[in-house]
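Customer ticket, subject: "Can you confirm the structure for acetyl-CoA carboxytransferase?"

Message body: Hello, I'm evaluating your service for our small team and ran a test protein. I'd like someone to confirm that this is what the system normally returns, since I don't have a reference to compare against.
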Amino acid sequence: MDEKSYMFIGHQKGRNTKENIARNFAMPTPHGYRKALRMMKYADHHGFPIITFVDTPGAFADLKSEELGQGEAIAHNLRTMFGLKVPVVTVVTGEGGSGGALAIACSNKLFMLENSAFYVASPEACAAILWKSSQAAPKAAEKLRITAQEHYRLKIADGVIPEPLGGAHVDPAWTSQQIKITITQAIKELENMNTEELLQHRRLKFRSIGGFQEGIPVEPKRKRNMKPSEVNMPKAADIELEIENLKKKILEAKGPSDPITTQAIEKLKKDVDKEMTNAFISMGLQEKLESVKLELSKASKDTSSQPLNRNLKEKVDKIMQEFNHNLSQPGAYLGLKQKLEKLNLVSRLIEKEERKQKLKAEINQKVPAELKEKMELLKNAEEKISKGEPVDKELMEEVEAVKKELVEVLKSANLEVVGVTKKNGVTAPPELKEKIEKVNTEIYEEIERVINEAGISGRIEELKAGIAKGSSSEDIEKAEAKIKEEILATLDVEALKEKVKSLTVELDLPEETVAEGEISAENGKFQ
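Agent reply: Thanks for trying us out. I re-ran your input and got the following:
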C-alpha cells in the first residue's frame, strides 16, 4: 500500500448464503488462528506493520474445534500480540464477537466503521442469560453498548470511520479510501515510536479500559438488572402445600375472613403484578402497554359514557394476544404461570365459599323458627348415636318425621333435594357390639367354607393377579360374576338372612343399617 509492505490479516464473510457457508460465516477454527499467528510472527521478524480486519460473530464453537484446542489457540494469539515489536492496527468492518474477534485485535489502534458493532456477547445471547428470553435483545443491546460511538466514548475505539449514507456497501470504493486514510495516519504516528514505547503504548491502551479511582468511598449500587436466581424459588411441591393450607383456612373460616388468609392473598396478588410487569418488560411490550394506558386514560376523560374506541380495543387485544402467546411457550415464565394458577384456584375457592354462605343464609331465612327447634332433636339423636348410647324407637320415629318435614320446607323454598343419605360408621350400643361381631364372624366362616368346598380359592387368586397386571375390565367383571354365582349357588343364604333379621329386631333398626359396611368383599371373596 503506497509502495510499502504490510501484513493484512482479517475475517471474511460472504455476500450471499452460498458464500457465507463456504467461509463458515466468518467463524474461525483453531487452524485459522494458528495460521494468523504464524503470519504475525513472520511480519514481526521482517518488520512489516500488521493490519487486521475484524468481521466475525465469534470463534467456531463445535466439538471438533474444542478437540483441536480452540481456547488455547486464542490465548496464544492474545499473549503473542502484546509482544509484537511492529505497529498493529485493527479495523472493525462489521461485527466483532468476543474472544473470536479479540484474537486478532490486540492492537495499538482500534478503529470501527460507523455502523459496526463490537461486543462480548451477542444481544440475543445476553438477553437469554440475564432475562431468560431472547426477545429482550433490544434491551440487552442498549445495556451492552455495542455501537462504534459508545466504544469511542468509552475510549475502547480510537476513532470512528465514516460510511456513506445507507452503509459501506453502497459505495465500497469511497469507504475503502476512508479506511486507507485512517490506517496510513495511524501507522505514521506509531512509526515515530521506538520498540519499548510501542509495546508500552499497546499495554496501556488495554490497561486504561474500564478506568477506576482509588481512595474515594462509593456507595454500593443496590439496583440489579439480572433476573434473581431460581435456586430459592418455591418448588411446585411447596406451592401445592401452600394452596392446600389456603384451602383449609378458607373452608374452616367462620364469620369474617381470616386476616392471615387475606394478607396471603394480597401478597400473592402483588407478586403476580410484579411478575407480570417483569414479563411485559422482557417481552418488549412495556412501551406499547404504557402508550395504551395513556390513550385509555385520555379516552376515559373525554368520553366517560361512550363505549371504548374500536382501534384502541384492537390494540389492547393485540398486546394481550402477543403476551399470551409468549406466556404459553413451554418452559417460559414458569414462576408467573404457577402463581397465576395459584391465584385462580384461590379465587375459585373464595367464590365457592361466598356462594355457600349466601345459600346458607337464604335457607336459614326460609326455615321457620319452629322447625329450627325440632332440628335440635336431630342433633341430640346424632350425639347419642355417636357416643354409643341406646336410642329408643319413639326417638327414631320423631327423627324421621323431622327429616320429612325439613325436606318439605326446602322444596317449598324452591330448593331441590337431591337425596337423603345415611352416615356410614353408625356404632351400635356396647351391649350389642358382641352380637354384631359374632354374626359377622359366622357369615365370614360360612363364605370361607363354601370357597374351600367348591375349590374357588385358586380362581380368586388368579383374579387378583389379573387385576394387579391390569387385565381388561370386561374379563375381570366376567370372572367376578362367575365366582359370585358359584358362591351363591352353594351358600345357605336363607340361614344367614335369618341371623341378620333377628339381630335387626334386637337393634330396632333397618336391616341395611346393621349390615351396612359390615359384610364386605373381604379378600375378594364375596360382594
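A couple of notes from the result: Residues 509-527 have pLDDT under 50 and may be disordered. The beta strands are 7-10, 50-56, 88-97, 109-113, 117-119, 159-161. Feel free to reply with more questions.
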